[in-house]
Write a structure and sequence with these properties.
By secondary structure, the chain is mainly alpha-helical. The protein has five helices and no strands. Helix 1 packs across helix 2. 21% of the residues are buried.
Length: 92
């Protein structure tokens, strides 16, 4: 199971089996918080979603994040968002 599958399994465990609902509920919540933290108005913009995805992926790849609480805290960390703003994650 790769890291993305782990994220997906975790999201299913939290929000249920429905593919679209589980995925969108998880990343929608993350994107909302990222936007709020940064003062961005447009939650649906590609930069917010790209930031959320990359933060989750890197958190899982680190191997240090094992619980829902740790994952959410890591994803919403301002350092993670700042790294995107600095171009660390590439283009949205």
């Amino acid at each position: 199971m790769d890291n993305w599958e782990k994220v997906w399994e975790w999201a299913k465990g939290v929000w249920g089996d429905d593919e679209n609902y589980g995925f969108n509920r998880f990343f929608g919540g993350v994107a909302s918080q990222v936007a709020k933290n940064r003062g961005w108005d447009e939650v649906g913009s590609s930069d917010v979603w790209w930031t959320s995805f990359e933060c989750v992926k890197r958190a899982m790849e680190s191997g240090k994040v094992t619980t829902r609480k740790e994952l959410v805290r890591t994803v919403l960390d301002n350092h993670c968002v700042s790294a995107w703003e600095a171009g660390y994650y590439g283009e949205a």
